[in-house]
Specification:
Distance between the termini: 7 Å
Shape: globular
Number of helices: 7
Protein name: NERD domain-containing protein
Oligomer: single chain
Pfam families: NERD
Organism: Mantoniella antarctica
Strand content: 15-25%
InterPro entries: NERD
Number of strands: 11
Largest sheet: 5 strands, mixed
Amino acid sequence: RRLKLAALASNPAVTEELPGDAAGRDGEDSFVRAIQGKTSAPSVKIFREVRVPHDAVPARRFEIDVVLACRSCLVVVEVKNWSGDVSPDPAQASSTATPGAGAWLQTRRDGSTLRHEDPLALLRRKAASLAAWLSSVHGLDLPDGFVRIKLVLVNGRHLRVDPRLTALPAVYHHEAVDDACAADLSWAGGLLAWMAGELLPWDKTRAMHAALAAAPTWDVLRLEGGATLRGDFRGFEGPG
């Protein structure tokens, strides 16, 4: 048995990361680096992979890609590194008076299609759950309109988005997001300007930052070969 364990330790199985997982993480990294490159204000804090209680299933959690927290607002950000074409689902677009409401249809470059069930509605639920968690667990009641949402589509060079979606205030699509080292980070400055508003007192801002810093995140297990597993780590079982 010891020889078997030694062989496993010296020759671990190689598990490569799935392309979709890698693309999603790379998109989040690009977005965060660009925001960090545009601001050094101590009042602006960035938190990643924040988990908050699910609003319908107590045993589950919502995961928020990025939270931007400053004195003027709290922005719940979903980062999508999609490719191809994205538009409102034709089956629902004609049945709603609200542009962008309902499912979105993504047509990939290989011709395959994916249906995304109302991404903005899901993001609003995540934002509401985060606000409820801050209130119930940390006693932080934020002003009306303080919590905002932003769906960021980062693959500007390989993604075409229907104008009905890009016109929505909660949707952001710009090819410069792809290159966090680009000289022109005006898009990031524009996003930060959009975050302006009435300021929270400093003590409440610091309490908000502390609460978010202590928020649950996923356990991360990195495998030989590049794959990354995220979840609740309960233990490990080896051979024998």
